[in-house]
Amino acid sequence: MKTGHKVRVISLIVVLVLLLMAVVGGTYAWFSRNRVTSTDRVTSRTGEESVELYVSSQGGAGFRQQKEAAIVQVNNVNLTNLQPVSTGNLKTFLYSAGSSGNVVSSFLEDTEGKLYYHGRIYLQAVMTGQNAGKKLDLYLDTGREAGGAPVQAAKPEILNGSRLGLTFNGGNPVILSLSQNHNVGDEEYKTTTVVNGAAIGPNQVLTTAGGQVQAVADPSRYYGDYSIAFSDGSARLPGAALLRMESNQIYTVDIYYYLEGCDTDCNMALALEDVSLHLSFYGVLA
Q: Which of 16, 52, 77, 152 has the fewest CB atoms within 10 Å, counting from its CB?
């Protein structure tokens, strides 16, 4: 098991090194394994009129405005048995209950959360002076000083079929795809996922409605759609913010990392690979 720490002081940025993962054994559609560990944080200020971003392992009265905070694991993941699941809402996670040849058509719900990683932290924006009472739009920062992409791997093929999910105070999920590349040749695992007698499309995932498994459009968006960009000293805002934060309010941030079993890029090419997640948040006064 490994730990990673990364601390940077950058105006209006919180840097969180969330976890290190060791993927053990073959990784391919509907099967994988991993290990998960810990976290760091950074806060920053801007003179007498300050905007501060804080992170804590506890919420409510237990919130601590600390420079470092550990992610609290929520589910009961067996750290050697993380397997691909499929979800469209970060609430219902379905896994393969069996297959016939290259056809997967039987699914069960992972009600105990044993097959994916689920962690939790708490964020708070504190604004004083003339900034008091304003709101803060929260984005990802993937600039060089912030650590780059939110997920990094020595063997990037794993990123093509994995997802990073975030919810704030239990609201609508933000599901991020981590790569715009695709696996080819021996690194592509070709299966057919069948729901209600019909093969699902290439950009569909699974969920349930009325207790029945259904295929829905993959809601994930490329993480770059939420990432602020810098050029010639100026910032370019993306089209969507992760969250609009109220001053002093504590937000519960649920973090999910999983392999999307309906994604053909969830492949069989990986063994003993380390994967690290680096979430860098950038706040802009709204």
A: 152
pLDDT mean values, one per 10 residues, the chain (286 residues): 26 33 34 28 46 84 78 73 86 86 86 87 84 84 73 78 93 93 68 86 91 94 88 75 93 90 73 64 79
Residue that the structure tokens 């003993």 belong to: 272
Could you give the CA distance from residue 191 to residue 42 in angstroms, rounded to a whole number? 43
Q: Calculate the CA 40 to chain-centre distance.
A: 16
- Strand 192-195, strand 103-109: pairing: parallel
What global pTM score does this model have? 0.81
Contact (Cβ atoms closer than 8 angstroms) between residue 6 and residue 147? yes
Gap between the Cα atoms of 11 and 146, Å rounded: 11
Whether the CB-CB separation of 161 and 178 falls below 8 Å is answered with no
N-term to C-term CA, the chain: 41
* CB-based contacts of 107-114 (< 8 A; 24+ apart in sequence): 107/206, 107/213, 109/208, 110/85, 112/75, 112/76, 113/74, 113/75, 113/76, 113/77, 114/75, 114/76, 114/77, 114/78, 114/81
The H or E element spanning position 158 is helix 157-160
